[in-house]
Amino acid sequence: MSAASPTRRRLHALFEASIVLKGLFAAGELISGLGIWLIHADWVRRMAQTLTQAELSEDPSDLVAGWALALARGFSIETQHFWALYLIGHGALKLAVVAGLMAGIGWAYPASVLVLAGFIAWQLEHFWATGSIAMLALSLFDLVVIWLVLQEYKALKAARRG
Questions:
Q1: Which of 61, 84, 146, 147 has the fewest CB atoms within 10 Å, i.e. the most exposed one?
Q2: What is the pTM of this model?
Q3: CA–CA gap between residue 16 and residue 9 (Å, rounded)
Q4: In angstroms, rounded to a whole number, what is the distance separating the alpha carbons of residues 148 and 7?
Q5: Rounded distance, CA 145 to CA 108, Å?
Q6: 93, 86 in Cβ contact below 8 A?
Q7: Residue 103: what are its φ and ψ, rounded to 5°?
């Protein structure tokens, strides 16, 4: 990489930083999924009741406390299992792609583009259904990462040829 242009070096550094961020988010998802899998739904409801009780006794119309309590009451076994498996699967898949990219494994580049494109499709569908700005922001970040992955893949192929 020492003979690379300053622009190429900056792109490579940006690629590495974005992949590290993806890896950190993926690890967080995996750990969160495992945590959700291990807790009991009744514990979530009791904890929400305990944490919101004082606030709701002072202000029964408190939006945040009411929202947290409503979420906890809706935390069924099915919801728990869905989110646990979703986060574990999502995190593990992203960690595998990140590991492949960091190791410079050739197939990981096109695979990561496909995986990220799938995430973008799901995130945009979720954005259109809910209006969640977070999903739009994640999609934009993933688009940038796809572009960086493609740039890195081109450079890797050129380096292996020459």
A1: 61
A2: 0.71
A3: 11
A4: 12
A5: 13
A6: no
A7: -85, -10
- The pLDDT score that the predictor gives to residue 3 is 66
Please tell me the distance from the alpha carbon of residue 34 to that of residue 28, in angstroms, as a whole number: 10
How large is the C-alpha radius of gyration of the chain?
A: 21
| 19/153 Cα distance (integer angstroms) | 13
| Amino acid at residue number 63 | L
Residue 160 is which amino acid? R
Q: Which of 14, 3, 5, 2 is nearest to 152 (CA)?
A: 14
Amino acid identity at 158: A
DSSP summary character for residue 4: S
* Spans in the chain with pLDDT lower than 70: 1-3
Contacts of 131 (CB under 8 A, 6+ apart): none
Side chain identity, residue 156? L
Domain ranges of the chain: 6-161
Contact 139, 120 (CB under 8 A): yes
